[in-house]
Each structure stands twice: as structure tokens, then as C-alpha cells.
Amino acid sequence: MEEKLEALCESVQNADDVGGLQHATEGLRDHYGIAHIVYHWVNSVGERFGAGTYSQDWVDRYVEKDYLRMDPVILGCLQRFNPVDWKELDWSSRAARAFFREAVDFGVGNQGLSIPIRGPSGQFALFTVSDNSDDFTWATFIDRNMRDLMIVAHEFNKKALEFEQGGDSAPAPALSPRELTAMTYLAKGMNRAQAAKEMEISEHTLRVYIEAARHKLGALNTTHAVARALSRGLIVV
Amino acid sequence: MEEKLEALCESVQNADDVGGLQHATEGLRDHYGIAHIVYHWVNSVGERFGAGTYSQDWVDRYVEKDYLRMDPVILGCLQRFNPVDWKELDWSSRAARAFFREAVDFGVGNQGLSIPIRGPSGQFALFTVSDNSDDFTWATFIDRNMRDLMIVAHEFNKKALEFEQGGDSAPAPALSPRELTAMTYLAKGMNRAQAAKEMEISEHTLRVYIEAARHKLGALNTTHAVARALSRGLIVV
DNA sequence: ACCAGCCTCGCTATTTTGGGGGAGGGTAGA
DNA sequence: TCTACCCTCCCCCAAAATAGCGAGGCTGGT
Description:
The structure is a homodimer of 237-residue chains. Chain A has 237 residues and is of the alpha+beta class. Chain A has helices at 2-13, 18-32, 56-64, 72-78, 94-105, 135-166, 177-187, 192-199, 203-217, 222-231, and strands at residues 36-42, 48-52, 84-85, 111-118, 124-131.
């Protein structure tokens, strides 16, 4: 079993483009003998890409209908931390139920598990396994393979990150301690007067920090600067 | 080996407070025969807590000196995705090197590996293993145990999430599509006029969205609202 | 069928930010 | 050493955001 996992990880590691990941998902599907494996990834500039075994028809349909905006799997995972079984999601709306029926018609399994992972710059990835089976069979499958799947999901993420860094990487400008403190207070909702009082400096000085931070971050205004500082993991609210 | 991992995970699962996690870190340390295991967590409202085997002296010192703001492990992991060996971090500044020497003096290992994980609402967790050893021994240890450690780290996260939800959980307010779009444009640095033009609505209407978002997010001003929307994963820049 | 919530538009006055200048002392890295 | 960057303080004025009112049409869920 250990060796199998090793081989599966390697099939991901050996990918050198999105096509390679695609191939890896097919290998995984065959290995586990289930219906689908899908890896979906949003990079730090909001571009999406995916690799997986869903039929092209379904992918086209999904894009055409902009299902991304209402897919309970996506919406649910954006709010979660842990791997989530599709059954735990909110399918209560009419649109969601219709979407699910349509998905099953297009060959997506009636059972699914999605593992969400987040990166430091707004990256968001979803590793999904899906199959057609009853609740008990599915629960057994998950119980057996959850950990391996998490490891494999992680390999996918590593690969996706490599691809992104292969592109243009932002060098992440360093802010001075006072600048960071200032940005943190602003991110907490203070205005300049409050933040200055908190930092025990004049409002003028505070302004200097904010402007310095703005310039370093290439931001157009304070809100933008705070947003960038947050996205880049420079500060935490 | 498998059974050992199972037992370790259970020791985490059985924790029903932070003290329980503390106990679990001690068990892990003894199991692996290394110097330290530390789990550090920032929840969605910015409160931090930790469980681990560092000496109280070091923890006190760390807090007193506000090392959180300059600790290269924290700063580095805030920018990363994958588990990171401490050797890969940026120790070039004098302050960082002094910090490292001091840490070693306080019993922290000279080798370390930290696994960062992010949640949907700005939660950020760090699972760290540390020991005193040479590069080769450490590399071997990591190579052998990385995957198990990732699984264990995940158990910690699951537990931390439970604790948070047990307390007062922010119900994650849902923003309407237009509100989200508005917040996204603001996060990109547009002012109200530009965002309104982009959305093809009047500036007044845009203002309504911003205020609605502000109220839903409990934010004091626009910058705060954008910061919260970002930290909670509602928008991506 | 109804209600909640979304989307759209309007006004005025006050508060907060942003842009443009400077200036001097302190400290860490090359 | 010495240079670059950090920290701190000051002025004036234009531009932008916020607070407080309000109103009507449309859609989705119960």
C-alpha cells in the first residue's frame, strides 16, 4: 500500500504542465477504481485552471452556465477548513438540487469528497474525488483512503505552486515594523486619528507610514494597500 | 507504524480543551524522540493560542519581546503554502540571527519544520516540529515522517476548528453578488467613482452596496470591510 | 401569495484622506 | 565608516468617503 501511494505521488511530481496533472488524475481514478478525480485551482491573480476526469460536456456546461457561482461544493469549501463530504453541504436551494441532478446526469458521481486548501496570496485549490455508490460503501472508501488522498492532494498543490512560480512571482516588498503596525490598525478599522493615538505618534507621522506602505506595495489608496498587505500575508487581522 | 499514527491521531482527537492539545504535543514529542512539537493557531478574530513543548521561559520571552512580528518562521510561513524547513527561511538580518541564537539557548532545536495551514476566515495555523541534530539526520527524519506529520497537523486543525466553533463563531455573513463585486473592485484599489463605472451603476448605488457590506461584516469603514471580506475568503484580489 | 432581500436611483453636510512641500536624529547593513 | 532607510514632526488645500434622510421594481423561498 505504501508503495502504491509513493507511485501515485510520483505520477503527480513528474507532471511538468497541466496536461501532466490531467494524466495524473486519470491514473488516480484507475487506481482507486472510482468515477472521478478532479483538481481545481485558483491562482493569486484569480485565474482558474483545472485537471480532472469529468467529461468535456460537463465542463463546458459548467462554464457556460457559470455554475462556479452557485455550486454548493465550491461555496461550501470556500467556507471550510477540513475535507468535506458532499452530503454535508447545503443542497437546500432549488437551484442547488437541480444542479446536482444535472451533474449526476452528466456522469458526476452521486457521492463526493472535496479537500480545500488555501495559499498565502488568495490561492485556493480543491481536490475532489467522486463516485457512484451508496452511503455505506462510500463511507468505507473514505475511511480507508482519506489520508492517502490528503497526501496526494498536497502533491497536486505543490505542483500547482511550481507552475505559478514558473510564471511571474511578486517579490513581496518588506514593510518596516511601524508600517506594518499602521497597516494592521487600519485593517482593524481604525481611522488615522485612532491609529495614531494607539501608536502614540502624531497623525502626521502615521500618514508618512501609510504613504510609505502604499508606495512600497504599489497601492492606489489605503484600502488597496491594506488589501495587498493582507493578501501577501504581511499582516494578519 | 500505521497503528502508531492511529494512536497519535486519537490522542489529538480526544483532547477537549487546549490543555488536551498540550498533552498531545507532549505525547508526539516522546513518540518521535525529538525536542519539540508546537501547534500555534490564530483564529478568525485574531486571537492566538498555542500548545506545545517549548519551555515557559521561552514562551514568556517570545511574548515579551513581541517576536511574533519578526520571527522568520512566522513571516516565512505566512508567505508559503507547503511545509517549510527552517533552513529555507530568510535568516539574513542581524535581528533574525540573534533571535535564532536566543531560541537555541532557550532549548528550541536548531532544526525545524513548520507546516502552515489556512482557514477560510483568516485562520492561520502552524504545526512545528523541532530538534537538535545535524542536517543529514534531520533530512532523514523529515523524509521518513513528513506525511504522518501532515496528517497529525491536520488533526490538530480539526480540533482547533472545533474549539472555535464551540466558542462564539462568526456565522460568516453572506454578501450579495453585487456587494462582493463592489468589495472586490475596492480591494483592487478603485475609488467609488471608478468601481461604479466598472459596474455600470451610479455611484450612489455603489455606496449602498458598500454600506450593506460594511454592516453585514460589522466593519467600521470601507478599509475594514475589505480587510474582513479578504480574511474571510469572501473575495479574492 | 407574500415577505425578505436584492438592485437601482436621489440629496446635503460633515469628516476623513490624499498630494505637495520639508527637516532632523537614530540605527542597522555593506 | 557611511549610506540608506527608519522614525518622528510640521503646514495647506483639494478630493474622497461617510452619515443621515428616502423610494420603487424585481426575484426567490416559504
